[in-house]
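User: For documentation purposes, I need each entry recorded in a consistent format: the amino acid sequence on its own, followed directly by the corresponding structure tokens. There are two entries in this batch. Please keep commentary to a minimum and don't merge the entries.

Assistant: Recorded as requested. Entry 1:
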Amino acid sequence: MTEPVLSPRLTRTYVQTIHATPEEIFPLLCPELEKSWLPGWSYRMIHSHSGVAERGAVFETEREGGTTVWIVVEHDPQRRVAFARWQPDGLLVHIEIALGRHHGEATTAVCISYAYTPCSQRGVEALATYTEEAWLEMMSFWERSMNAWLAARRPLAANAR
């Protein structure tokens, strides 16, 4: 029997509080709709039957050092979505996002987990640069961006009635 090869792995989890219901949030966890609420987000869809996020959809983003390729590996509307992505720095990243409704409130706990696995020495070196501080800033930026976008849209929806 071959001995398993265990590359180092870094897992980080963050829980956001988003001021909306899971039904309002889930559609925004899609590369197309992220353009609306996440400043600086850009992507190119490679494969999707519907044109938006769905299980098996493939898209790419540009990042420092090259192109990152993503695939939607799980898509359970209103509950959870998961992605796997290959980064040009030699990291394979598994991202899980689960939505949990707060009882009696129009807020949702959005639990985000990233597991970074280096696939080469270059990936091991890249992983060493991924700081807790940068991770927290990225998650906080995403949380602030989504909440600001949702808050700005609420008065428009209320006035349209």
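Entry 2:
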Amino acid sequence: MTRERVERAAREFTTVFHDLKEQTFATTTWLGVPLVKTPADILVFQQIIAETRPELIVETGAYVGGSALLFASIQELLGIDGRVIAVDIDLSFVNDRVREHPRIELIEGSSTDPSIVSRIRSAARGKRVMVDLDADHRAHHVLEELRTYSSLVSPNCYLVVEDSFFGGRPVRPDAVPGPSEALDAWFAEEPPFESDRWRERYLLTQNPRGYMRRIPDDGEPPPGPQRPENFLTGAFELTGADGDDAAPPAKVDPETIGAELEAAAGEPDREVEALRKTVGNLARGNRQANVTADLDRRRTEITTDNLLREIDTQRELLLERNRQLELERAKVRRIESSLPYRLYGRIRKLPGISALVARRERFRDNAAQARRDQREKVRNERSERFVNHHRGQ
């Protein structure tokens, strides 16, 4: 088996897997929740979490929430006392099961918003951290995320850049500059990370060069079992946008590369948005199917005998509630007729005491109004950021 044959087969199969996305990516789920990952990458993420045991996993680009659920459920199975923070500009597609998961925190907004970054940094303090970047795939945004989140990653833990197989490596030659170009620019800055190519050994991956391990200062080896010296990967990064062998990346200037990549960027990736909508529609369709099935089940259970039994049950519950209410009323009457309560009522009517009580009630009302005003201000700011983001500001 030659290296060339392995690389060619891996590239061809990955291209077929991608081009049939309606039956591959769009139907892949984790515990019933859609996620846009290859089965091999799902397995690799499980292995990374098991070997590095991160206490906090930060994900940018939540979509339906399948990846966040994958990370949280693996943490739970491994007994890791940890959680997942997932950030997305639009959380409307997120599955209810993900929203209700006790280990998952969802944050709506841009992954590079300074307030959101500050919030995540605070959550990461003192934790063993892993980061997965799967938001806007345009190169300038990925590069900004790399510069922003790489410092959070713990030694021997992983920073993952997803979909670096875009730009003809080997799929989507039109999607340039993308994650792969961002990796070229970032590696030119000599960060304390290395691409762990062992994670690509299953040959089918969306993330060539994207599994990056933070190198420990003490030179500790990579986690997991000992690795063979020689192994084969698809080497997707060696294929350029034209399908031929890619030229080595040109030398970049870290001071100007971000602006250059942003100037070269087009509109947000339409294919990713289309796939996102397909997965979102699938999730909504599943929820609607569950609601319809529940209604059908209820219709079959509605019979005269069942209705009469339900009426009897509700009548008994009402009688019990009335009995409990009468007991509570009797307690109130005993309290109101007691000597301490009568003395309390007289004291409250004294001029100084009544003024103090009124002042306290005004203070409570003002505090409640201030909280309502603050919530309204936060909602307006979020709405404004969302509108400005979609306007490209």
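Summary note for entry 2:
Residues 55 and 82 are 4 Å apart (CA to CA).
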